[in-house]
Write a structure and sequence with these properties.
By secondary structure, the chain is an alpha+beta fold.
């Protein structure tokens, strides 16, 4: 028993002393063409969250250029009674970072836009070369979305994004398809 306890303690101490993947900085894309990013994106998979709690399907995000390096955002989903609900917001590059894929999104009224806490992280971790699919997460690993231009993108593409998210420290046991 003694011989087995010491190696286990050493492994535990090493695990606790070093940074985990979830503590490491979140990698984002090196380039983002906002003009190509605009349009409708279908939610393929996501981590459940309070602001999508009523959604049962047909979830989309539509981005429209505002002309000042910002995007208008319209999130839409079908709820249990068959009707649709929408949330409108604005996305912008996060000025605190010199990375094109690090955005912020605000759904609070515009007059509250000066408050830092109304802006949520929207970090583009991976983007298909043809802008057909995207992997979006937050640096705290609490939110994750896989979005695509079509409701059913190629399985290999989705699986690749899932592998990338897992490698970045996201707990894929929380991931819900659609």
């Amino acid at each position: 028993m003694r011989g087995g306890l010491l190696p286990r303690l050493l492994v535990l101490l090493c695990a606790l002393s070093g940074p985990s993947r979830a503590d490491a900085p979140l990698a984002t894309v090196d380039a983002l063409d906002l003009a190509r990013y605009v349009g409708i994106w279908h939610q393929v998979a996501h981590f459940p969250n309070r602001f999508q709690a009523r959604c049962v399907g047909d979830t989309t995000a539509e981005y429209t250029a505002l002309g000042d390096a910002r995007l208008a955002v319209r999130n839409r989903c079908r709820v249990a009674d068959g009707s649709f609900i929408e949330a409108h917001g604005v996305a912008r590059r996060n000025a605190a970072y010199d990375r094109p894929g690090i955005l912020q999104v605000r759904f609070a009224p515009a007059w509250l836009g000066w408050l830092p806490m109304v802006w949520g992280d929207y970090w583009i971790m991976a983007l298909a070369d043809d802008y057909s699919a995207v992997l979006v997460g937050t640096p705290d690993r609490e939110y994750l979305w896989i979005l695509a231009r079509t409701p059913t993108p190629p399985a290999a593409q989705v699986d690749g994004f899932k592998q990338q998210a897992a490698a970045a420290g996201f707990d894929l046991r929380r991931l819900v398809d659609r």
